[in-house]
């Protein structure tokens, strides 16, 4: 009831008050006259958001800073229906309750994330934003132009590109609580009338929010991050080449978490949740190399040929104290650790042929290729005589697709939009699970207890059919049906899981009112979601794997508002998402005895004799039947600012941001003490003094110092950042 009341207040404030939400970073201070145009490029063309029949949020680099968005996870506080849940190595990114709910390397994204047009694997997505042009969040399946891996939607992160107009750039530095020191900047240099280079860099260092009372003096969740990017643009006439290379190096001292209440090691929880009890060293070191090359040739007849080539190489080394405990209850070991190495390399290529838009019919044709090679090497120790357990997985995935989308003008104000895509996926996997390597029991090579070698392939047709009606110059109404698809994969030679699919039926209206001072985007949707992929215990092998365990229905509504009058601005978003998963039967792994290996289900009448066989029947339980996972029913955000002219070339701007993300479930067992993340409402503020090219700013986040759980990993829970504040100075030139 409280969340509904707050949501109503937020919407009322948005409609009663007059922000700028532009997708192009302004070179000069904004005028007080009205809203700037929002430009999006997710459909391969530069288009006004108000004329694009998609539910989307677009934020410029300046708008991201205004709303305190520093990394991908912060977008959930600026875009309705988006939730991002910490899970350690990966983040569970979901839109309208669809995305990814498994940490297996065999599972693909359900929300496709792109940086400069290149698809990003789900690892190493926590690095900081810097020198950003805009971010676009598209809600609902994007099955035509994006293709597979976008059952929930897509996020496009576009960095600033070089330009040939002049030497320009910026420099920024800040100091804040927890001894946080940051510095970032960029310089754009035109080498000639046709060639330009842009160099950007970012540095962040911060102490940990936590105190580890164990003997290893760990600094979990501290931060030491360095990144640099070089862009080159060459534009001799109708041809354009744009290349970018980025390096990222990030260390955090390991993930910070503690045992969930009522789990095995819960007695190690201290009264102060910022006090951790590790008895093993922890580490988290992430490195990434990203490269993209976009080529464009515009022909005399207006046709454009576009090519986007990409390569990424991401590596992560982690050390975990998996029990997060100094002491252990009787019968358990408090030396449970994990050494983890993950590497993912990706090669991608896309071609587009894009028509001009000055006729009654315009279209886009395309082809896509992507290959991902993944290396996963994990060694765990649990205090057992058969330690260690070595898990090695090496998936090799290939995704291909061909697509077409066209818009036909049925009448002067009515347009038919149709898109079709066929995607094909193939995966080969090598790997094994070996126990006791080097032990007295199994010798130097250990005992292989599982063969993870396997293969899988599938393909689906996806697309969209819709009608767009331009009611008048300021109002566009649209309705469509769209289908999305996410591929399946392989657990082993004898175990595969199938794809996820979703049908989305949606209608919306976008309006510009009050002579350009008020802008709205509203929509409703109904989604039929099939084949939900989730981690479960396979009774036929005794191993954990990924399975298609449930279907779901999802329905809801979304509203966004931007308004401006004089120096006063407001921006806000609201989403209501109602979902229902089918019921199912699965093994409750929390009640299983702690064994290195279980073995397959024993035949009827045969007693458990692991690892030869195990009787799982007493541990089967009914699950599902409730909300989709990682799907808050209510989410909304509200930003208010006032620009005050305080002197010659001086503007003082106070700004307040409030964001609410409702409670969400994380497991199909729906255990309130273990599987439930409570709602959080976070308040942030900024006070900015702009003096020509210089800007001074005081900032604060989580001003009420709310304590909240941001995610879960196994039987441990992770936490959001505490209250932080500081000062920031920047200069543009």
The amount of helix comes to under 10%
Shape: globular
Largest sheet: 22 strands, antiparallel, barrel
Structural class: mainly beta
> Strand share of the residues?
over 45%
Show unreliable segments: 1-32
Mean pLDDT rating: 91
Determine Rg (CA atoms, Å).
26 Å
Q: Count the strands? A: 44
What is the terminal-to-terminal distance?
Answer: 50 Å
* Number of continuous helical runs: 2
Summarize the structure.
The protein has 733 residues and is an all-beta fold.
What does this structure look like?
This protein has 733 residues and is mainly β. It is 3% helix and 57% strand. The protein has a 22-stranded antiparallel beta barrel. A five-stranded mixed β-sheet has the order 3-8-9-6-7. The longest helix is centred in the N-terminal third of the chain and has 15 residues, at 2-16.
Give the SSE layout:
Blueprint: H1 2-16, E1 39-40, E2 47-48, E3 55-60, H2 61-66, E4 82-87, E5 90-95, E6 111-115, E7 118-120, E8 132-139, E9 153-159, E10 168-176, E11 180-190, E12 195-206, E13 211-212, E14 223-234, E15 239-251, E16 257-259, E17 275-276, E18 283-298, E19 304-321, E20 337-354, E21 361-381, E22 389-411, E23 414-435, E24 447-451, E25 454-472, E26 475-486, E27 489-492, E28 495-497, E29 500-513, E30 518-537, E31 544-565, E32 568-581, E33 583-587, E34 620-624, E35 634-642, E36 644-647, E37 650-661, E38 664-665, E39 676-677, E40 680-691, E41 694-701, E42 709-713, E43 716-719, E44 724-732
Parallel strand pairs: 6-9, 13-17
Antiparallel strand pairs: 1-2, 3-8, 4-5, 6-7, 8-9, 10-11, 10-44, 11-12, 12-14, 14-15, 15-18, 16-43, 18-19, 19-20, 20-21, 21-22, 22-23, 23-24, 23-25, 25-26, 26-29, 27-28, 29-30, 30-31, 31-32, 32-35, 33-34, 35-37, 36-37, 37-40, 38-39, 40-41, 41-44, 42-43
């Amino acid at each position: 009831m409280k969340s509904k009341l707050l949501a109503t207040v937020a919407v009322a404030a948005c409609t009663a008050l007059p922000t700028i939400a532009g997708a192009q970073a302004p070179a000069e201070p904004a005028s007080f006259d009205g809203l700037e145009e929002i430009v999006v490029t997710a459909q391969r063309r530069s288009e006004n958001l108000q004329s694009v029949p998609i539910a989307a949020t677009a934020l410029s680099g300046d708008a991201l800073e205004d709303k305190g968005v520093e990394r991908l996870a912060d977008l959930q506080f600026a875009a309705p229906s988006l939730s991002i849940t910490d899970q350690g190595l990966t983040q569970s990114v979901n839109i309208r309750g669809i995305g990814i709910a498994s940490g297996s390397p065999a599972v693909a994204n359900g929300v496709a994330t792109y940086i400069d047009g290149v698809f990003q694997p789900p690892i190493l997505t926590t690095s900081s934003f810097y020198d950003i042009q805009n971010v676009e969040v598209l809600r609902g399946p994007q099955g035509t132009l994006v293709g597979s891996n976008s059952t929930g939607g897509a996020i496009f992160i576009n960095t600033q590109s070089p330009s040939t107009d002049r030497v320009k750039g910026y420099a920024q530095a800040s100091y804040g609580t927890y001894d946080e020191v940051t510095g970032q900047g960029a310089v754009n240099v035109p080498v000639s009338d046709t060639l330009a280079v842009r160099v950007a860099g970012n540095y962040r260092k911060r102490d940990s929010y936590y105190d580890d009372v164990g003997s290893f003096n760990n600094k979990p969740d501290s931060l030491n991050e360095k990144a640099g990017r070089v862009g080159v643009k060459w534009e001799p006439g109708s041809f354009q080449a744009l290349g970018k290379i980025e390096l990222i190096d990030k260390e955090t001292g390991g993930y910070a978490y503690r045992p969930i209440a009522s789990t095995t090691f819960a007695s190690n929880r201290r009264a102060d949740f910022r006090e951790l009890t590790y008895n093993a060293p922890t580490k988290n070191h992430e490195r990434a190399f990203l490269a993209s090359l976009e080529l464009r040739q515009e022909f005399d007849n207006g046709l454009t040929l576009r090519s986007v080539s990409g390569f990424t190489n991401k590596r992560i080394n982690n050390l975990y104290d998996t029990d997060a405990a100094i002491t252990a209850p009787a019968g358990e070991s408090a030396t449970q650790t994990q050494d983890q190495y993950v590497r993912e390399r990706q090669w991608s290529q896309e071609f587009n042929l894009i028509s001009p838009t000055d006729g009654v019919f315009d279209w886009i044709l395309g082809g896509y290729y992507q290959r991902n090679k993944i290396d996963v090497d994990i060694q765990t120790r649990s205090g057992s005589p058969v330690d260690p357990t070595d898990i090695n997985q090496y998936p090799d995935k290939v995704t291909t697709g061909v697509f077409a989308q066209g818009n036909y003008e049925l009448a002067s104000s009515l347009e038919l939009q149709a898109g079709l895509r066929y995607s094909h996926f193939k995966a080969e996997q090598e790997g094994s699970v070996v126990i006791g390597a080097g032990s007295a029991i199994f010798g130097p090579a250990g005992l292989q207890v599982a063969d993870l070698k396997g293969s899988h392939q599938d393909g689906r047709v996806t697309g969209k059919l819709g009608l767009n009606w331009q009611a008048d110059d300021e109002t566009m109404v649209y309705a469509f049906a769209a289908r999305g698809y996410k591929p399946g994969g392989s657990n082993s030679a004898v175990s595969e899981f199938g794809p996820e699919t979703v049908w989305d039926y949606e209608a919306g209206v976008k309006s510009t009112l009050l002579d350009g001072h008020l802008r709205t985007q509203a929509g409703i949707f109904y989604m039929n979601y099939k084949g939900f992929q989730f981690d479960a215990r396979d009774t036929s092998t005794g191993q954990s794997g990924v399975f298609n365990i449930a279907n779901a229905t999802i329905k809801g509504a979304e509203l966004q508002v931007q308004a401006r009058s004089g120096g006063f601005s407001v921006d806000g978003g609201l989403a209501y998402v109602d979902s229902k998963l089918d019921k199912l039967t699965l093994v409750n792994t929390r009640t299983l005895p702690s064994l290195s290996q279980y073995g397959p289900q024993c035949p009827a009448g045969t007693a458990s004799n692991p690892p030869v066989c195990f009787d799982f029947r007493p541990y089967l339980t009914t699950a599902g039947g409730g909300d989709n996972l990682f799907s808050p029913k209510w989410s909304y955000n509200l930003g208010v600012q006032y620009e005050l002219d305080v002197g010659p070339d001086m503007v003082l701007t106070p700004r307040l941001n409030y964001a609410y993300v409702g409670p969400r479930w994380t497991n199909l067992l729906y255990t309130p003490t273990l599987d439930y993340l409570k709602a959080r409402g976070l308040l942030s503020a900024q006070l900015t003094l702009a003096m020509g090219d210089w800007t001074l700013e005081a900032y604060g986040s989580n001003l009420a110092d709310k304590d909240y759980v941001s995610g879960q990993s196994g039987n441990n829970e992770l936490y959001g950042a505490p209250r932080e504040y500081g000062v920031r100075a920047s200069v543009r030139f």
